[in-house]
Amino acid sequence: MAEEKAVAGMSGKNGEKAMAGQPGNAAEYSGISGDGQAANEKRPAVVKLRNFTLSFPMDGKLYPAVKHLDLEIREGEMAALIGESGCGKSMTALSVIGLQPETAVIDGEILYDGRNILDFSEKEWSELRGKSISMVFQEPMTALNPLIRVGRQIEENILEHQKVSKREAREKAWAMMRQVGLPDVEALSRAYPHQLSGGQRQRIMIAMAFINNPALLIADEPTTALDVTIQAQIMQLMKKLNRELKTAVLLISHNLGLVRSLCSYVYIMYAGSVVEEGKVEEILTRPMHPYTRGLAAAIPAAGKRGRALEPIPGTVPDLDARPEKGCVFCGRCARSMEICSREDPPCVSIEGRKVFCHLSEAELTGKP
Amino acid sequence: MKKELIRIEHVTKDFRDSNRRRVRAVDDLSLSIYEGETFGLVGESGCGKSTTGNLLVRLLKANQGKIFYKGTEISGISEREFAKYRREIQMVFQDPYGSINPRKKIGWLLEEPLKIHRKDLSAEERRRMAERMLEVVGLDKSFGRRYPKALSGGQRQRVSIALALILNPSFVVADEPVSALDVSIQAQILNLLASLKKEFSLTLLFISHDLNVVSYLSDRIGIMYLGNLVEVGRVELIERGAAHPYTRALFSASERESGRGPDEPVLTGDVPSPSDPPAGCPFHTRCPYCQEVCRREKPVLREIEEGWSAACHFPFSVELP
Prior knowledge:
The structure holds two protein chains of two kinds.
Chain A: H1 2-20, H2 23-30, H3 37-42, E1 45-58, E2 61-74, E3 78-82, H4 89-96, E4 105-112, E5 115-116, H5 122-128, E6 133-136, H6 140-143, H7 150-161, H8 166-179, H9 185-188, H10 198-210, E7 216-220, H11 228-245, E8 248-253, E9 265-270, E10 273-279, H12 280-285, H13 290-298, E11 347-350, E12 353-356, H14 361-365
Parallel strand pairs in A: 3-8, 3-9, 6-7, 7-8
Antiparallel strand pairs in A: 1-2, 1-4, 4-5, 9-10, 10-12, 11-12
Chain B: E1 4-16, E2 22-34, E3 38-42, H1 49-56, E4 64-69, E5 72-73, H2 79-86, E6 89-92, H3 106-117, H4 123-136, H5 153-165, E7 171-175, H6 183-199, E8 203-208, H7 211-217, E9 220-225, E10 228-234, H8 235-240, H9 245-257, H10 292-296, E11 302-305, E12 308-310
Parallel strand pairs in B: 3-8, 3-9, 6-7, 7-8
Antiparallel strand pairs in B: 1-2, 1-4, 4-5, 9-10, 10-12, 11-12
Helix pairs in contact in B: 3-4, 4-5, 5-6
């Protein structure tokens, strides 16, 4: 207990200071976040999705869950993919690590190291997955093997990808467990997943995901199953490892606010398409796409007490009820025009961000 | 002035875990809820907030303590005597998939409580009332002929609310009613709850882990930790600067979530197990301001100013010892 406090406390404080902009870390940090867009542009992309489409066949027809997606994650960057359930964010995440459902029909490219990983064989995947690209899932209880001690699960992941002895693997596993802030590591490594708390299990998942020093980590709602005070711990840990190990992170979440202090770039997805993308700070403080605006206005807060929230009317259309042409959001959009249901929205570039909408730049920004 | 609708006096609820160890879910809790207010109960999983809600609607019975409704004790009475309070005290559950019978049509479900509690109504009157209730919660009356599985999550939660309100209760316990919903749908349901509360002059106990949601909707809030109420008071007082360090950690974590800057240290460690709670203050194992006395003596709720109390030996601590 005492050790946990010490270790976790240390990581907590470090993260806190860096976020507050301590000079030492700030320089390194700003390259990743904040005003680091210029620096970011120079970083090569780890993974690029080009015109990526993922569809499900039903009654001889294809229904896209993800449509014409262009997305890239740069080295050492923390990017976020935000959207509500059914927007295709998890399908995108699973495809990047080659775990999309077998029934899915895929089009376009996902480039890693110049190669299209969508063409990879299962053998090629087994070399890549867990080593260069790894993943943290939402529910660690279902992602961990319930019958194997957690220490061994981490060791196996090392032995699979690194040429080390069993003893070295154990030492590495323990060192990683300490790095993710777990207490009393020797005893804890002999525990089964069900004997740990939710926060501890997620720390184990994170240790496993980072153990082979991957170039990219995909985190699919990593804290959604956790309590808020534990959530804050886990998010700080992810940021710390992202900085220390220079691993690029793609964070998948439904929570727009969660990403502010962590990520530099954000993609907002709705019903299979990206509707707006850009620097986190700018999109959060000044959302432009009607959907992003709607999301921000719908979030309750003490400051809005006594006033009605502005919900987005209707619901996300089901896969088989989405329009083939035109804007996916137009059925729920208060500002939709005649053209919106007829033509796909163009990409409007405004001050470094992209908005996919038929509204003019002046209408989007509210400036004449 | 303010009239007490619900009073909870020194209520304790124990469970047994799989090893037959005693797990104290609610520990000597005392609380009043006033007529016409929305009281928000907040805390993390396992803090006892849902148990408290279940005790109030009598899905559970307390081991110790008393519960009063409009001045009458309802905790010690028999099941038969309690029946007349059931139509006054209703509940909306978190999971609209688990709390609605999937084999019955929505209309049948809405008429069922009327058959039991409103024997004065004819079949035609019942049907009309069910249809009107659907319209009140923003659904077309044709939903009465549908099965729950044909509804989306948001629509089901509207049905749960209609089910809770059809008997025209005065007190409704809503246990995480929007936690399973997407943000855009969540806002629809929160608006609906706020307007129905006015329309039906309800008193609402709103239970949630989400401080943003709770402080948006509530007049007063109570913060629970390990079965204990650690702070209670009017929202606008507490949000200006909470007295209890746990409340401040919660506020700071949810502010971080809503995108504002963090100012409190992130809490370390996990919540202790309720089967083995720490001695002294239940929060001392994670408290950044813990002192010697906190490990020894359990603090009681003390008034800070009118309408605001906290259970902390050193309220408003900001300097680390």
